[in-house]
UniProtKB/TrEMBL annotation:
<dbReference type="GO" id="GO:0016020">
    <property type="term" value="C:membrane"/>
</dbReference>
<dbReference type="Pfam" id="PF25198">
    <property type="entry name" value="Spore_GerAC_N"/>
</dbReference>
<feature type="signal peptide">
    <location>
        <begin position="1"/>
        <end position="22"/>
    </location>
</feature>
<dbReference type="InterPro" id="IPR038501">
    <property type="entry name" value="Spore_GerAC_C_sf"/>
</dbReference>
<keyword id="KW-0309">Germination</keyword>
<feature type="domain" description="Spore germination GerAC-like C-terminal">
    <location>
        <begin position="217"/>
        <end position="393"/>
    </location>
</feature>
<keyword id="KW-0449">Lipoprotein</keyword>
<protein>
    <submittedName>
        <fullName>Spore germination protein B3</fullName>
    </submittedName>
</protein>
<dbReference type="InterPro" id="IPR057336">
    <property type="entry name" value="GerAC_N"/>
</dbReference>
<dbReference type="InterPro" id="IPR008844">
    <property type="entry name" value="Spore_GerAC-like"/>
</dbReference>
<keyword id="KW-0472">Membrane</keyword>
<dbReference type="InterPro" id="IPR046953">
    <property type="entry name" value="Spore_GerAC-like_C"/>
</dbReference>
<dbReference type="Pfam" id="PF05504">
    <property type="entry name" value="Spore_GerAC"/>
</dbReference>
<feature type="domain" description="Spore germination protein N-terminal">
    <location>
        <begin position="24"/>
        <end position="193"/>
    </location>
</feature>
<keyword id="KW-0732">Signal</keyword>
<dbReference type="GO" id="GO:0009847">
    <property type="term" value="P:spore germination"/>
</dbReference>
<keyword id="KW-0564">Palmitate</keyword>
Length: 407
């Protein structure tokens, strides 16, 4: 009984100790970061943070969150963070930060030597999104909020996560970047830039002709950790098909003129839109007579989203024409990005070299040192796309069909 009583007392004391909060920090002591920009000027790191100051909690006296922008410098990112406390009255807290924007000059210098700080520190998230400010400083983009989000950081995150609706960009996290980097793969980051748009807010009293918004179309191409250039929005569609990363989006294309019952089935200059339901890309490498040949096969399932060409989609021949035209457009997307990767950048960020390594390891050992500059630019490829249109909507005979002219 005595031993049992002692054991209960010890367990009770342990529970009391274990439920205590050690190393806690109050909200009124923290500067919570929601977005970060990294730039380099005069050989110094310029660190800019969007910081949310939590509201006061006095009952009956609510105060909205405040957003301030804190900028500091240092020889390293870690030093810049600590130097911020010399001018800002709270210690910066990075655990809630979800996005970092690299200024273009910073990215051209090489990001690998600096961003290791985000891995060594225990606070930053591995799910931190990484973007490059195209043609601009990173700090010039913080503070722009053209959406309904409470901060510009949340607005930017919303834009990044919308990529699945267009496939015209790419969302890459800190974890994904280092996963590619350490596997000797060439990473590709998202892009963000400022765009001036016509002001459409009718509640504005003053006559403001334009407003600034952020645009995340395109991709930033890196050679190891240094920025080399950019892919356009259309090239990113091809890139996402090549890397089997298409989550959704639209394919806009023209159906070639043809005739059924002596009537035109398409009008030149008009467009049809296919909404992507699912997509799968398979790539295979063959070596014939010493020449590397890449086979790219895409299978797409989609639904007819919109058509302005006057197409009678109930006709089998018309349906086949639509599917074939959609496939041709996707092939063009892929050919465009392949041409740019091979001829302009000479960087295999499409992970083709991994196919060679897996299927022909002995050949890879011989050519690996010369891959990007000598081998990759000259590989031959064949693209085959199969489109399956599974839905055409409620109207099988569109109203603009009668505008077809007799030939």
């Amino acid at each position: 009984m005595i031993k049992k009583a002692i054991s209960i007392i010890i367990l009770t004391l342990m529970l009391m100790v274990c439920t205590s909060c050690a190393g806690s920090r109050e909200l009124n002591e923290l500067g919570i970061i929601t977005a970060t920009a990294l730039d380099i000027e005069n050989e110094k790191i310029i660190l800019t943070n969007e910081v949310v100051i939590p509201p006061a909690t006095e009952p009956g006296n609510p105060i909205e969150d405040k957003v301030v922008y804190v900028q500091s410098t240092g020889d390293t990112i870690f030093e810049a963070y600590r130097n911020a406390t010399l001018e800002f009255d709270r210690k910066l807290y990075t655990a809630h930060n979800m996005v970092v924007v690299f200024g273009e000059e910073f990215a051209k210098r090489g990001i690998g030597d600096y961003i290791v700080d985000f891995l060594n520190d225990s606070e930053p998230r591995e799910a931190l999104y990484m973007l490059v400010a195209k043609g601009d400083k990173g700090y010039n983009l913080l503070g722009i909020n053209a959406g309904v989000a409470s901060t510009s950081g949340d607005y930017l995150i919303g834009l990044i996560e919308n990529f699945k609706y267009t496939s015209k960009t790419r969302s890459v996290t800190l974890y994904e970047y280092f996963k590619y980097f350490y596997k000797n793969k060439t990473p590709l980051l998202g892009v963000v830039q400022k765009v001036e748009k016509i002001e459409t807010n009718k509640k504005k009293v003053k006559d403001i002709p334009s407003k600034t918004v952020l645009n995340v179309m395109g991709g930033a191409v890196f050679r190891r950790d240094k920025l080399e250039g950019y892919y356009t929005a259309d090239e990113m569609i091809g890139f996402n098909f090549m890397t089997n990363k298409v989550k959704g989006g639209l394919i806009v294309f023209e159906v070639p003129d043809g005739k059924i019952d002596n009537k035109l089935i398409a009008t030149k200059g008009k467009f049809t839109t296919m909404e992507i339901i699912s997509s799968r890309t398979k790539k295979d490498i063959e070596i014939v007579d010493g020449q590397i040949h890449l086979n790219i096969n895409v299978r797409l399932k989609g639904t007819l989203g919109e058509e302005t060409e006057g197409l009678r989609v109930t006709e089998l021949d018309v349906k086949n024409s639509i599917q074939k035209a959609c496939s041709k457009r996707i092939e063009k997307y892929i050919e465009t990005v392949m041409n740019k990767a091979q001829k302009e950048f000479q960087i295999d960020n499409l992970d083709i070299k991994n196919l060679v390594y897996i299927k022909y390891p002995e050949v890879w050992n011989e050519i690996s040192d010369d891959w990007d500059k000598e081998i990759f630019p000259d590989i031959i490829y064949t693209v085959k796309v199969e489109t399956n249109m599974v839905r055409t909507g409620l109207t099988n005979i569109p109203p603009n069909l009668e505008k077809g002219r007799e030939k």
